Amino acid sequence: MSAPGTELQIRFASAYARNGGNAKAAAIEAGYSEKSADDLGRRALESPIVHELIILELTRQRARAGVIGLNALIGVAESDKAPAPAKVAAGRALLEFAGLAGSSKDLDDSRWRGDGSPAPDYRSILDAFAQAAAAAIASPKSLQ
Fold this sequence. Notes:
The chain is mainly α. It is 64% helix and 0% strand. The chain is built from six helices and no strands. Helix 5 packs antiparallel against helix 6. The chain is elongated, with a radius of gyration of 24 Å. The termini are far apart.
C-alpha cells in the first residue's frame, strides 16, 4: 500500500467493505457528516489510498470467511450427529481444499506420494461412501 490513510479513510474503507458497497452509509458510519456523506463518500472512492484500503479489508474478510467455512466443514466431518451424506460432502470439500481430490480435469498423474506411487483416487473413494450411505438411507433394513 502506498500510504496508510487517515483514520477516517480507514474507517470508511472498512465500513464500505462490510456493508457491500454503500458509500453514503460507509461515510456516515466512518464519522462524516450526514449532510455531506453522499458527496464525501463518492470522493473517498476516488482516492487511490481508499481504494487500496477497501481491497485490503475485502481480503481480510475473505480470509476470515475461509477460516470460518473450513472450521464448519471440519466440524461436520468430525460430528457423530451429522448424517453420512453431509460427512461425505464435508470430507470431499476438505480433500479438495487440501489439493488431494478434485475433478478429473484438476487431477493428473503429476501428483505423487512420497514413495513414488500415485496418490489414491479419493474422489472415487468418497463417491463409493456416498453411494453406500444413500443405499443405507433408501433401505434402512440393510443396516440391521
